[in-house]
Design brief:
By secondary structure, the protein is an all-alpha fold. 75% of the residues lie in helices and 0% in strands. It has four helices and no strands. The longest helix has 30 residues. The radius of gyration is 16 Å and the shape is elongated. The relative contact order is 0.21.
């Protein structure tokens, strides 16, 4: 059975949702910091690569998680089968989010861009379980 089907039902308080989203931002930012540090340690070319600066990836991590939570809540509210839709939508959105990073190869090289791609995956891997917990999947 899917882990998505074991999600508790019921509505969570706004404070619980906000707290979960903030926790996801903090956790994903920490993982992204480790990825940025690793990329900088591996390749000199990433030293001046702006997207690996904390101000850039922390801001974009927060934006991605907040927008993801809005999308998650919208799907849960309007879909008759939110679990089914989200199983397809989440990976598709992550893959589409890779597109702008590929245009940065000239600036960040393979290591820098790979770090950015891994950051997108890390954000999704951290955020989705939080969304499941604080915004349970319920059919309308």
């Amino acid at each position: 059975m899917s882990s998505l089907t074991h999600t508790p039902t019921g509505r969570r308080s706004p404070l619980t949702v906000v707290g979960g989203v903030i926790a996801a931002i903090v956790a994903a930012s920490a993982v992204n910091a480790l990825l940025a540090i690793a990329a900088r340690a591996i390749a000199d070319r990433t030293d001046d690569f702006g997207p690996l600066n904390p101000g850039s990836y922390i801001f974009l991590t927060a934006v991605g998680i907040v927008l993801g939570s809005v999308g998650w809540a919208a799907v849960c509210k309007v879909s008759k089968r939110p679990e089914h839709l989200l199983r397809r939508l989440v990976p598709a959105v992550v893959v589409v989010s890779f597109v702008p990073d590929f245009f940065l190869f000239d600036d960040g090289g393979a290591v820098g861009v790979t770090a950015l791609l891994l950051m997108h995956v890390a954000v999704a891997v951290i955020a989705v379980p939080v969304y499941r917990r604080v915004m349970p999947l319920t059919a309308r």
